[in-house]
Structure formats: C-alpha cells, structure tokens
Amino acid sequence: MTNPADIPPPLPWELRAKAVGSMPGGNASYLETLREVCGFVSRQRPTSQDLVGWLQNRFGLKENSASWRGRFLQNTGILEFDSGLLQLSKFADRWYESEDDGIVIALLHSRLQFIGEMLAELSARPLRTEELRLAADRYGLNWERGDQIARRRRWLQSAKLTEPAGSGRIAITDAGRDLLSKLDLYVPSGITARPQPSSATNSQKTGPEVDNPDSPLTDAPKPDLHTPTIDLSDAKSLANRIRDASTDSKNPDRLEIAVRDAFDFLGFDAEKLGGSGKTDVLVKAPLGKEDSYTVTIDAKTVGSGSLGDHQVDWVTLEDHRKQHNADYSMLVGPNPSGQRLMSRAINKSVAVLSTEQLAELCIQHADAPLGLQDYRALFESGGAVDTVSIGKAAQDLTRLRDLAVEICSKLAERTGAFGPLTAPQLMVMLGQPDKSSSEQEIQQVLDTLASPLIGAVQGKASEGYVLATAPRVIQQRLQLLGDQLAR
C-alpha cells in the first residue's frame, strides 16, 4: 500500500499536461524500463544529451524519440536537474528504493491529466478503450483516437493497478482501488464525483485477456465538431495520421482534418471548411496589420499514393483564393509528381506540399517550434515547396537552445571557483572561437536568460553572470507562461 506521504499534491488541472509519453517495452514493461533508466541516472548523473545517447544505444531509439522521452521524464517530475546534471526527483528516488509502483503513478497523476481520473472511471465497471476515450471527453480531452488512453493503460497495467478483463475491457485491481482512495481527483463542472473506493473492494474481472493495447489502433474518425489541441508529444501520432489519411480516398475528410490539425499544431489559426464551393482548410497567420497572411489549402487523397495533374481542379483553387481574399494557395497530397502538375502550380502560384513533408514538419516542430514568419516560406513560391530554409531555421533554434544549456552548465561548474563569468570568458570555456557561435551571440543568450521573465542568470555584461536559481524553477516559470498564453 502506498504511503500518503509519498503522494505529491497534484498541480491544478489546467497546468497538467494532456499527453502521456510511452516507454520502450510491451503492455506490462513500462515500469521495468523506467527502473532501468532511473538506475542509469542514479549511477551516472548524466547530462540531458548523455541520457539521450544512452537511450538510443540501449533501446535502439532514434535521436528525436530518445530526446522526447527524456523531456517527458523531466516534465513529469521523475527526473530533475541539479547543477546541470540529471538526478532522480525525491518521489522517483522513493519509488526506486521502495519498489512501490503506486508512488510513480501518483507522481504521473500530479503532472498529467486523466491518470487517477481514468482509474476512477474504471471503479464502477470494466471499460473498453473507446468507452474510456468517450469518458475523457467530459474532462475536456477530445481525442479522436485511442492512443492516449492506450498509453495510460500501459502505465497503469505495468504498475498492476489495472488488468485485462476480457472482451477488450480493462478493470481496476485491488491495488488500483487502494491508490485511488488516496488521490486528489479533478471533477469537471457538471459531473458528480464518484465515491472514493475502499481498498477492500474486490476488483472486477470477467475473463482472460483477449486484447493487446500495443496493437494498431483502429478507432473510426469522429465527426469534425471541434478543433482539438495537439500536445507537442503527440507530433509523431499526428504525422502518422497525415500519412495514413493521404491514401484513404474513400474518406477524404480524414486528410482535411489532419491537415487542419497539423497547421493548428504549427501555430496557425486553422479551420476546416470543405463542402461545395469552399476551400478544404483555411489557414491564418495573425501577425498584425502589416504582416498577417491567409492561405487556402486543398487537401487531396489518392488511393495509389501519388498525386498527378489530372486530379487537380486549378480553376477551383484560384476561385478559393479569391473568395477568401487569401494571400497564398497551397495543394497538399501524397507524393505530388509530374512536370505538368508542377508547371501548372508555378503558373497558378500554388505551393505544392507533399503529405510526407507536412508530417516531417510536425515532427520537426515538436523539437524546434518555429514562428509564423518562418513558416511563410512554405507558401511564397508556386510549385514544389522547398523546406530547406525551414530546416535551417529549426537547426538555428536548436543550436541556440543547446548554447543556452551549455552556458548554464558552465556557470554551474565554474562560477564557484572563478566568480561571475562574462561572454568572452564563456566563449573561451565553450571552445566557441572555432565554432559558429560568436561572443555577440553568447551575450544575446545571456541577456535573454537574465530577463526578469526568465531569470535563469543574474549579472551584467561588464561584470559577468552567475546562475540565479535551480533549472526546475526556470522550467516551472516557462511552463506557467506558456500555459497562460495558451488559454
């Protein structure tokens, strides 16, 4: 039984993340993998990049996937920084030493939406993934597919808080009821709170396991009733939706919804219109009176997987741009090809973007979120879209972020012995004279980190800088700022 002292108080609901990350391993292996990760962190005290490299080598992950999992473990409070190095948080350390899996699930509940609440939904009777997805709607989590439910299911099943109950259902266990009785749950307005269960209540199980939550999800598309909010960690899922929908010619709405969600994820105001005489997706970049721009987008599904000129109504595309007084027009489809298609696109000033390019842009955006002015380059020229400039901007953003981390790491390591450090001194310590970052760029990063809103460092350009607070405090400030801006 989990000690109530080992259960952290949950963040306010609006500050908890919607998306739950996965871990390498099957249905019941998430916590086994997490234990191995925590063992590595406890022994080695790695940097973020060290952890990414270890995850790649140990589990065969790609760099983006390993980096994403590392960030998830930090965002959920399992790992934290101390003097530029990773360590186990207080609660993660208690879990690692005690092997009480309820502690880590309680920690996830404190940082993520619909963890304990999902247990509460299961307290009445076993439910299928689709039933849980519909239950999540009442909490404002309007997921079109069951991916996020499946991930939560694996975490809970790995901790033996739930178990398969036959016919595709999942049931709460006695251990799950015990933990549930100790959690502080969120209750949406208009919903009566479920009675907190007693740990003595028997779990409900109706038969052998027949379903596999790691199997491909086959949830049918829902009617397009809203514009969902896509969390950063859902980028890969969104990319797969775009790819899958691009060849589903019997359900063209799937691609239109996916394209809308993709541009919404990239930061645009995106609206699915569709229907006779309307553009499929209308995208707006609100950059003020002078710089704002609007794009009409036609999304084409092709069963064969290759979009050709004969499948495009160029006159209609031009009409849509005029109808919405748009600045640009774009065509999105699988593998656009053929000289005739590209020549027409150039003549009609229609940007042609492949669904694979759009999927990759979403994955890139998860690691390097760019601004609407950067993304204007996608639409400015007719014909095949060249994403090279977008990729370079993403690399520059990543480089600056890495530089900021390196600067903070050096300040943590050296200021105790040398006192405050200036940009020229940091440039030497970072080995930057032979690299791309200049003294001026290092100073710009220091100015940003020293701003009152961030407050990561303190000092003056002439006298040098020191760290102003712990990295977890900076993370909290930035997260709170982002959450408030997103309201």
Task: Give a quick precis of the structure.
It is built from 20 helices and 13 strands. It has helices at residues 30-44, 48-59, 63-75, 90-98, 101-111, 116-122, 129-137, 147-158, 174-180, 235-246, 252-265, 288-291, 314-323, 339-347, 355-367, 372-375, 388-418, 423-429, 439-449, 471-485; strands at residues 79-82, 85-88, 127-128, 162-164, 169-172, 269-272, 281-285, 293-299, 328-333, 350-354, 383-384, 457-460, 464-467.
Task: Give a written overview of the molecule.
The chain is of the alpha/beta class and 487 residues long. It has 3 domains: 4-180, no CATH class; 234-386, Restriction Endonuclease (3-Layer(aba) Sandwich), CATH 3.40.91.70; 394-485, Arc Repressor Mutant, subunit A (Orthogonal Bundle), CATH 1.10.10. The chain has 20 helices and 13 strands. The chain has helices at 30-44, 48-59, 63-75, 90-98, 101-111, 116-122, 129-137, 147-158, 174-180, 235-246, 252-265, 288-291, 314-323, 339-347, 355-367, 372-375, 388-418, 423-429, 439-449, 471-485; strands spanning 79-82, 85-88, 127-128, 162-164, 169-172, 269-272, 281-285, 293-299, 328-333, 350-354, 383-384, 457-460, 464-467. Strands 6-7-8-9-10-11 form a 6-stranded mixed β-sheet, sandwiched between helices. It has a 3-stranded antiparallel β-sheet with strand order 3-5-4. A hairpin with a 3-residue loop joins strand 12 and strand 13 (464-467). The protein is globular.
